[in-house]
Design goal:
The complex is a heterodimer. By secondary structure, chain A is mainly beta. Chain A is built from 2 helices and 15 strands. Chain A has helices at 10-20, 49-61, and strands spanning 42-46, 67-75, 83-91, 97-104, 118-124, 127-128, 132-133, 143-150, 153-164, 170-174, 180-190, 195-196, 207-211, 214-218, 227-236. Chain A starts with 9 loop residues before the first helix and ends with a strand. Chain B has helices at residues 39-49, 72-88; strands at residues 2-14, 23-35, 55-60. A 3-stranded antiparallel β-sheet of chain B has the order 2-1-3. Chain B is elongated. The chains are: A mainly beta, B alpha+beta. Strand 10 (170-174) of chain A pairs antiparallel with strand 2 of chain B.
Chain lengths: 239, 90
């Protein structure tokens, strides 16, 4: 029989045994210390996504595989709000796998724009992937990568303020960066509450087309008294 | 002659909360199609929307083609050909 070499300290083994033995001599009522369960959670504040990745790697270095850690997270560049974060070290395979799940809340009174938002981040093959939103905040003009997939690719969503509808002509808005491979859905809503879905059979006589990274609105009459916001979902050829 | 009137729109949004506002400005490129017949009207519109009233006029060779019957997509395709690229070239 091969020798077994444990990677755990004596205290860790004692604690694990104690929790496994009902009524054992060791403390059986506590969750593992240091991982945010049963203890005061660590407070982590980072400036941006790159700093977040560095901090997560630092945490993973102190964690064993298949261990989860819960902590309070603030990422200044994302929403600057307190969030409940869970980091799970899922596998050591091929450089390491990990999963970060973040639930944001708002400490201030009233409904903040960025509260109740959930986003994820995965480490695969030792490399952190981009942050993905379960429910994007949908601030105007901001591109959000989502957990949604289309043809296996990540779906991005953006709400574009198109300003005023045109006066008997066409108006084109450029949205997003290059690399938009395919628009998979779009919808517009005007300040008059009219939904634009493509054709011009609506109260504004306004047609809407979205191709690659351009939005085109066209009217046959003067509709400049109304504005529109168009929400677009798309995939990229860079993914 | 036909024209594309290219400009940037300036918007503001609150990236903070109602209690702790964080007002951020951002810009959106836009492009309006004009012909000789409606140039002044479209220019007035573009200047009114443009940040600091700055509009860059681009002459384009062909006029916007007439819609083929009631095929709105053919009509929009033609507008797209000129508009998207022009908006991006700003």
């Amino acid at each position: 029989m091969a020798d077994y070499v444990s990677n755990y300290s004596g205290d860790q083994i004692d604690e694990a045994v104690g929790r496994a033995l009902p009524g054992g001599a060791l403390d059986t009522s506590k969750a593992p210390a240091g991982f945010g369960y049963g203890d005061q959670m660590e407070y982590v504040e980072v400036s941006d996504e790159a700093a977040l990745e560095a901090k997560l790697d630092e945490m993973l270095n102190d964690m064993s595989v298949r261990i989860s850690k819960q902590f309070i997270l603030v990422v200044n560049s994302i929403n600057n709000l307190n969030s409940l974060a869970n980091l799970t070290f899922t596998s050591t395979y091929a450089g390491g796998y990990a999963q970060l799940t973040v639930y944001t809340w708002n400490n201030t009174q009233g409904e903040g724009q960025a509260s109740n938002c959930t986003f994820l981040k995965q480490k695969r093959f030792g490399k952190w992937g981009k942050l993905e939103y379960v429910n994007p905040i949908m601030r105007l003009g901001v591109e959000y990568r989502t957990t949604e997939r289309h043809l296996g690719k990540p779906v991005y969503v953006r709400a574009v303020d198109c300003g005023a509808l045109p006066n008997a002509t066409s108006k084109t808005l450029a949205f997003g960066e290059s690399g938009v491979a395919e628009t998979i859905s779009f919808v517009g809503v005007t300040s008059y509450g009219v939904v634009l879905t493509g054709g011009s059979e609506n109260e504004h006589g306004c047609s809407l087309m979205v191709r690659l990274n351009g939005i085109t609105l066209k009217t046959q009459t003067n509709q400049t008294g109304f504005t529109a916001i168009v929400t677009v979902k798309y995939i990229k050829n860079t993914d | 002659m036909a024209y594309l009137l290219n400009y940037k729109m300036r918007f503001e949004r609150n990236d903070g909360t109602e209690e702790e506002p964080n007002i951020v400005e951002y810009f959106q490129n836009a492009s309006v199609f004009a012909t000789n017949a409606d140039y002044d009207k479209q220019m007035d519109f573009a200047k009114a929307e443009a940040y600091n009233g700055e509009v860059i006029v681009e002459e384009i060779a062909d006029q916007e083609p007439e819609p083929a019957g009631d095929d709105v997509w053919a009509e929009l395709d033609a507008a797209y050909q000129e508009g998207v690229n022009a908006a991006y070239d700003q």
